[in-house]
Amino acid sequence: MSVAFRRESDDEHKEPEFELPIPVGPNLVTERGLTLIAEKMAELKAAIAAETDEEVRKKLHRTLRYWSIQHATAQVPPPPDDGSAGIGSQVTIRQGGKTRDFRIVGHDEADPGAGLLAFTAPLSRAVMGAGAGELVAFGGKEGAIEIVAVRP
């Protein structure tokens, strides 16, 4: 019989499961973000303890490893003391005649629909370090965004 028709087990043809990717760079988070990571880890540990299916447990352990790394590497930077935008700041901007509010947060806490932008998002990067009343470049245009207010 040809080797092509022999198979030791079904597991031979499964795709390997890689670890969940960790974002590149520092893992900056807000106090809220650090709390959310700890809560997620507690949920996963409880789910692992209650789970009887070995495949599901493996997936839960994989996810727990991701959150454990995120927790271990989390850094909560101090808020800027000069009134400029930074991690954790609530920022109000005016762009193209429209006003918009958002908070600058860490990767895992980001939810653009809820007004939570990761510190690596282009808009967050554009306003970080700027204060109320300043005009900043965005999208290749100088002065495209006016910082209306920055709150800690």
UniProtKB/TrEMBL annotation:
Keyword terms: Elongation factor, Protein biosynthesis
Q: Which residues form the Transcription elongation factor GreA/GreB C-terminal domain?
A: 83-151
A Gene Ontology BP annotation from the UniProt entry: regulation of DNA-templated transcription elongation
Could you cite one Gene Ontology molecular function of this protein? translation elongation factor activity
Fetch the InterPro entries from UniProt.
Answer: GreA/GreB_C_sf, Tscrpt_elong_fac_GreA/B_C
Top-level division of the source organism's lineage: Bacteria
Presence of keyword Protein biosynthesis: yes
Keyword DNA repair attached: no
Tell me the protein's name: GreA/GreB family elongation factor
Originating species: Stakelama marina
